[in-house]
Design a protein that fits this description.
The chain contains 5 helices and 5 strands; from the N terminus they run βαβαβαβαβα. With 122 residues, the protein is an alpha/beta fold. It has a 5-stranded parallel sheet, sandwiched between helices. The protein is globular and about 35 Å long.
Length: 122
């Protein structure tokens, strides 16, 4: 069973993603607070996909992405999907797309598209 790290602080969004991931046969690992995030980011070898929000109260999603990409060879290519409502400039969006595998904007969320993106790595 594939393990999916969810770095998201909103309980409603967490539970929504848990339902989708379980439906897809994946095991969700929620890191919605600083302690759980640190624990998860220190143990990425057991994670198959990361879903990251850019706006977190305890760390920025940008920092999470950079930390994953700078991790050891076993996890530096971990697929990352950003699910965010953050407003970013076109320049920031272009930069983001060079670091992650997919970006889903909460304001333009389409369930079928999101499930299709997740299925690529599950």
């Amino acid at each position: 069973m594939k393990r999916v790290l969810i770095l998201e602080d909103d309980d409603v969004v967490q539970q929504f993603m848990v339902k989708i991931l379980k439906m897809l046969g994946a095991e969700p690992v929620i890191a919605g607070n600083p302690q759980k995030a640190e624990e998860a980011l220190s143990n990425l070898e057991n994670i198959d996909l990361a879903i990251v929000d850019l706006i977190l109260p305890f760390i920025t999603g940008w920092d999470v992405i950079d930390r994953i990409r700078k991790s050891g060879p076993a996890v530096k290519n971990l697929p990352i999907v950003v699910l965010t409502g953050a407003a970013v400039s076109e320049k920031e969006k272009a930069k983001l797309l060079t670091k992650v595998d997919a970006v889903v904007w909460k304001g333009d969320f389409a369930l079928d598209e999101f499930v299709g993106i997740l299925k690529r790595w599950l």
